[in-house]
Amino acid sequence: MTALTLSTAGAATLRADALVVGVAKGAGSKSGDLVLAPGAEAVDKAFDGKLATVLKALGATGAEGEVTKLPAPAGLKVPVVIAAGLGSAPEKDAAYDAEALRRAAGSAARALSGAKKAGFALPIESTEDAEAIAEGALLGAYAFTAYQGGENKLAPKDKKNGNGAKLPLGEVALLGAKPRDKAFKAAAERAVAVVEEINRARDLINTPPNDLYPESFAAVATAAGKEHGIKVQVLDEKALVKGGFGGLLGVGQGSTHGPRLVKLAYTHPKAEKTLALVGKGITYDSGGISLKPAGHNETMKCDMSGAASVFAAVVAAARLGLQVNVTGWLALAENMPSGNATRPGDVLRMYSGKTVEVLNTDAEGRLVLADALTRASEENPDAIVDVATLTGAMVLALGNRTFGIMANDDAFRTSIHEIAEEVGEASWPMPLPADLRKGMDSPTADIANMGERMGGGLVAGLFLKEFVGEGITWAHLDIAGPAFHEGAPYGYTPKGGTGSAIRTLVKLAERTAAGDLG
Question: Which is catalytic among the residues 45, 77, 185, 292?
């Protein structure tokens, strides 16, 4: 991953391939003007006080996501200056929004692919600002290159990968972050730990399904557990049969790659609370016998994004040494059509003992999650949060950048929403209307895996609620929209797997450790 350093050099003396400064749209009386953000003073001086004028002549507006490159003048040790847009400037004496800093740093880092080192002189007034810039730059510099670089005998000799893609920015040098201050060091270390796990999750999501399937995902989790002192338990097919995990077995029985239930347990000797995280891990979703139509299969390697997020959050909690017990449950299966596959109309006996009539084999995520939620409930944690790319209905409701939050406790739902907004992850609280439950009544089984079509995302949440232990606080995050980005990269969000909800889960674990959630 891209390296992060807290530089003692000033903007005028730093030796690097480029220097990043911030620009914004003027506010109040300066509305319409281009405003230089704090941190750009030395660069402006090198431009004889005309940096804003030059940028405006080049068409810069300060808009969020905008990146303007220009050659550096004499007086700077870098050859290139990059002006990153921060959006609207804050009112007088107010600080720049952390998410604006994060996105500007990400946009600049993406524009610097191929460079070895760049200095980031964006405005820093606090450790939170420094951490946001570090996070944005490291997330923005991400590139998935595992399947690039094979020898192409027809390509020019100087091409390092088959498609000529540039390597990500090598080093982010953060200016103005007080490298000798313990608080700034801690902020930088936190950013590195969290982003490394987010990028590991992105790698898993982007890995093709012929290489990532339940057994290989479980092996990755096992290796990470050994590295970070996390106890890992893997239930294979025999153990799942013995335990009666009918949901996982029913979904996975059509594939040559058998299902797995992986438990990751990070414990702290002084912890007073336990947080259980449950992730949907469908490593490939064909829809099963209820086969997806043409055009809907190509990105279904991302249907394990919830499990990737849970995995990353547990490892990040361990790396940060949080004073809370965090248990992750990865419900892993591959949903394929075959002569052995579950059929519409089949009835599965779940781990809870309830029976489920499967009306649609493409509503499989809720089946594997149901088993994992019941198993997680047996350990009586203080709260359970499940994360899943669960329904297309949630994408229709909230779009591609916002995840939905449902819960059996309004205060807990509100807390998660506030945390998500704080860390820069767009989310929205959603209800669980009791009247929608009747649509899942089955004449054959205890419940059906489908209900009313309208409000389908809420129906899925109501189904999951049935498998949460009595008296346990629970929330469900449907990340179907933001988990996998198919458009052009923006800010610190790449094309492909995003690592959605990981920052929210890590901050939730920190709040739980601090006793801020009751």
Answer: 292
Is 292 a residue of the active site?
A: yes
List pLDDT tens digits, range 101-124. 999 999 999 999 999 999 999 999
Q: Enter the CATH code of domain 199-514.
A: 3.40.630.10
Q: Is 189 annotated as contributing to ligand binding?
A: no
3-state SS record for 389-439: CCCHHHHHHHCCCCEEEEECCHHHHHHHHHHHHHHCCCEEECCCCHHHHHH
Alpha-carbon separation of residue 471 from 138, 264, 276, 348, 381 (angstroms): 40, 23, 14, 25, 10
Question: For residues 283 and 212, is the Cβ–Cβ distance under 8 A?
Answer: yes
Residue 285 annotated in ligand binding: yes
97 belongs to an annotated ligand binding site: no
Write the pLDDT tens digit of every residue in 207-220.
999 999 999 999 99
399 and 375 in contact (C-beta within 8 Å)?
no
Q: Per the annotation, does 178 bind a ligand?
A: no
Radius of gyration of the chain (CA): 24
Q: Rounded distance, CA 79 to CA 517, Å?
A: 49
Q: Show the beta-strand stretches assigned E in 52-116.
A: 67-71, 80-88
Find the catalytic residue in 190, 202, 319, 366: 366
* CB contact set of 466 (below 8 Å; sequence gap of 6+): 354, 370, 447
Residue type (1 letter), 490:
Y
For this structure, is 182 an active site residue? Answer: no
Residues 6+ apart with CB under 8 A from 66: 60, 84, 85, 107
Q: Give the largest CA-CA distance in the chain.
A: 80
Known binding residue 237? Answer is no
pLDDT, tens digit, for every residue of 357-373? 999 999 999 999 999 99
Segments making up each domain of the chain, as ranges: 3-149+164-174, 199-514
Q: Which residues, including other chains, have CB under 8 Å from residue 391's CB and lie 6 or more apart?
A: 456, 457, 460, 478, 480
> Taking the complete model, does pTM exceed 0.90, yes or no?
yes
Q: What is the pLDDT of residue 159?
A: 42
Going by C-alpha positions, the residue among 353, 373, 392 that lies closest to residue 464 is 373
3-149+164-174 topology per CATH: Leucine Aminopeptidase, subunit E; domain 1 (3.40.220)
